[in-house]
Amino acid sequence: MFDHIECFYRPSTLREALVLLHKTGKRGAIVAGATDIVTRADRTPRFFIDVTHLGLDYVRKKGRGCTIGAATTMMGLEKSPIINRLAGGILAKAAATCGSIQNRNMATVGGNLANASPAADTAPVLLALDAQLVAVNSRRKRRIPLDEFYTGPHRTVLNGELIEEILIPPLPGGRSGWSFQKLGRTETDISLVNAAAGLQADSRGRIKWVHIALGAVGPMPLRAREAENLLQGNALSEDSITRAGGAVMNQVSPISDGRASAEYRREMSRILVQRALRECAVQAGFPIMN
Amino acid sequence: MLVTVNINGEAKRLNIAPGELLLDALRSAGYFGVKRGCETGECGACTVLVNEKPVNSCLMFAAQAEDADILTIEGVAPDGKLDPIQTAFLDHGAVQCGYCTPGMILSAKALLAGRPDPTEGEVREALAGNFCRCTGYLKPVEAVLAAAQVYRQAGQSARRKSGRSLGTSRKKR
Ligand SMILES: Cc1cc2nc3c(=O)[nH]c(=O)nc-3n(C[C@H](O)[C@H](O)[C@H](O)COP(=O)(O)OP(=O)(O)OC[C@H]3O[C@@H](n4cnc5c(N)ncnc54)[C@H](O)[C@@H]3O)c2cc1C
Ligand code: FES
Ligand code: FES
């Protein structure tokens, strides 16, 4: 299937990898866990550059946030005590749904983001957590907010760059709640719709901070900003949850495919966001008014 | 290109194409217990343990296995003496056509190495990536639970057993 590959490079330093990436240009492709590369079988690359030996497999706590090496596997996230404690463990939960154990032992978080599937399960979580990507090439290093990373299905702003790490900024503490929701044929199948949410309440029971993100309901994972704006500053009520769900349905632009119809995805985007908000409220000990 | 890998405790040099998948490289080297199923990471028939972790060899490049310890079903009973998991699969009628069996046994082996006393739910999760077209899921689950008990009674963990069968390669990566 990959007879056209001329060389498989396994650099052991980031520098070496960046030089190779520069030299091979458009004919070179980054390989991490290979779980998407092999199944997509794109025949354009002539050279593969393996990024799993660059020391990019780590999770480090940074105040109330953390940094994650791009080559950290889904299993690595699931098992990381830091990731399990961060934001109610929603990133660990999302990682644990990325296919079978066999798949999760190989699949990396960098690959999940760079592959830019609209259904990638870590994407809505990292969007809700305001993650930034550190992208490097042989000349420069820059930070890209995940929210500005995607340009379409399987398209990103990366330009001959490698994702080195993912930064999660300090997150609201106090009375906060978090949720990851996934709808798939089975628990570990590709998502039909997925969603993540986090919220923080002030001392008077009003929403001080709220982030909602969804996947598989448009060309790329997205932040549900209209719903967030509706909720921000108000108490959580049955009515505001209903209106937030309505705003999400208006914002999404799902497609029909072999897995689900657009109508179903649109309806489920509302349901998942409402479920997520309720779960957040319970965690935050935040009453839902009638 | 040449890759050096440790397969079932033996150092091997495999001559591979740069884009060759581990599944193809292992089968070409004679490890036919590594089964070719879906080739898209869904079925688990091609499961091998790489540094003690189950992976689908159809989704891994052979070049990525450089210096790794690989365990295939052929290495599970190197001297012809069956592993308790294998015996339990036979005793419980967990093998029908047998196509999924090598992958199931390797997934089970990895589970028991880390969790000598797994719950039924943990066994099911460990085998969730191994599809059986003969649809025998109940019996493999029973077999793995029984094998866990055999290991515990014998006071050995699956890890120590596999450590021995891997012979020279004790190095942890
Ligand atoms: C059976 C099966 C089930 C799956 N189930 C799920 C699921 O439930 N949820 C889900 O989200 N995904 C799922 N996936 C998809 C896949 O496993 C994930 O997207 C995985 O995280 C991809 O990571 P990888 O390391 O394998 O990427 P690779 O295949 O190695 O790479 C994917 C893409 O990312 C690029 N890339 C990789 N690393 C970097 C980097 N550091 N910098 C820049 N570019 C990079 C590569 O060039 C390539 O374009 C499934 C896949 C299979 C085969
Ligand atoms: S052949 Fe590898 S998972 Fe099916
Ligand atoms: S025994 Fe036939 S596929 Fe499982």
Task: Please summarize what this structure is.
The complex is a heterodimer of chains A (290) and B (173). With 290 residues, chain A is an alpha+beta fold.
Shape of chain A: globular
Radius of gyration based on Cα positions of chain B: 15 Å
Poorly predicted tracts of residues of chain B: 161-173
How many helices of chain B? Answer: 6
| Mean pLDDT value of chain A | 96
- Give every kind of bound small molecule, once each: flavin-adenine dinucleotide, FE2/S2 (inorganic) cluster
Instruction: Bin the strand percentage of chain B.
Output: 5-15%
Explain how this protein is built.
The complex is a heterodimer of chains A (290) and B (173). By secondary structure, chain A is an alpha+beta fold. Chain A has 2 domains: 59-168, Uridine Diphospho-n-acetylenolpyruvylglucosamine Reductase, domain 3, CATH 3.30.465.10; 177-284, CO dehydrogenase flavoprotein, C-terminal domain (Enolase-like, domain 1, 2-Layer Sandwich), CATH 3.30.390. Helix content of chain A is 33%, strand content 25%. In chain A, helix 9 packs antiparallel against helix 10 and helix 10 packs antiparallel against helix 11 (262-284). The longest helix of chain A is centred in the last third of the chain and has 23 residues, at 262-284. Chain B has 6 helices and 5 strands, in the order E-E-H-E-E-E-H-H-H-H-H. A 5-stranded mixed beta sheet of chain B has the order 2-1-5-3-4, with helices on one face. In chain B, a hairpin with a 2-residue loop joins strand 1 (2-7) and strand 2 (10-15). The two termini of chain B are 23 Å apart. Bound molecules: flavin-adenine dinucleotide and FE2/S2 (inorganic) cluster (2 copies). Flavin-adenine dinucleotide sits between chains A (29-37, 39, 51, 70, 97-99, 103, 106-108, 110-112, 114-115, 120-121, 158, 162-163, 188-190) and B (41-42, 59).
